[in-house]
Amino acid sequence: MKRQVVAAAVALAMGSTLAACGSASENSGDGGEGGPIKVALIPPTSGALAQFGTDAVKGWETAVRLANEAGGVDGREIELIVKSTDADPATTLRVAKEAVTQDGAQFIGAVMTSPEHAALNAQLEGLGALSFNALGKDDALVGEQCSPYAFHVVQTSSMDINALASSLSELPGDKWAIQAVDYATGHGAAEKFKAAAEEAGKEIVLEQFAPLDTTDFGSYITKIKDSGADAVFAVEYGADGVAFVQQADQFNLDNQLETVLGFNMVSEPLFETLGDTIEGYFNNVGYDVDGDNTENQEFVDAYTEDHGAAPYYVPADNYLAAQTLFAGIEEAGSADPADVSEALGDLSFDSIVGAVTVRAADHQVLRDSYLGEVVKDGKALKFSIQSNATPDVTTPEPDSACSM
Fold this sequence. Notes:
The chain is of the alpha/beta class and 404 residues long.
């Protein structure tokens, strides 16, 4: 039976609270307008998301190196304050408070999951700091959980699903099973996929969710096999995605499937681990490493020099977050978070993914999405971009629940 496995690029999830405290400008200790502009990075350093956290920091490091070598941003040096979290929203909020009030950070990046961002967004104005989300994809972050102090650089789940939807009718398989991670991103992606599948004339025969950090997918795979599905939409990523793919192979799940469509399941860091079994997989890709523009070529060369390998979407989206911040500071002529927030509204600038615009209504960055196929490049695997979907196709209208 023809085997096609489609995987979609990294995306992630949301929740908790923190008492509002003094603003970054009140606590910065940065020596005034001549001092460094401080950015706190708060990535996960353990669990299934640790590798992504490490790579998010790498994207910021390359962006800051290039900016500082060019004389800084608006004439000021950028300083990174690298913290860590376990991806629990309460932990992330505590660390963010420390970064602002004790370390003088004015801006926050590299926060991973949508629950963390949801909790953080609710406190940003009180903290007086801006957050740049390059990883959490939940639509609510630009809806009811939006904040004038939060910017959504990465594509939302809806944008990713809309990019896939245009190809779904052409993918083999009529009876689809959904296998997703059991938190906001997984449930949100599943709901949106069901709507797209119905529109494409596909039938959903099974929907099930596994907790984050699941290591044994045997019972889930058995249910997929018993459902009669001839295609699977899988929202698993990091170590969970590896476990699902490898165990599906052990259970010979592919023997009954025509298509496996992954969402956040196969990414470049996993190619070596998963091996040639994923050759021919298709993937909804957020970033094209071969993008033909000057900004991207400079980034790819610098990142490869810094870290010994070409970038993929996690460091790339975090680099884009840095570009967004720097563009806002330059436009505002100030590093005051309130001034930068205002300056970024409807601002367009050239980036590693081409020309982008920060939509003022919800602070979503409008950018293309791609469909890629895993192919052999010599002995290595890479994504070959097959098509792209523009923001007018992928991006929903601003949610009326978002109040700026």
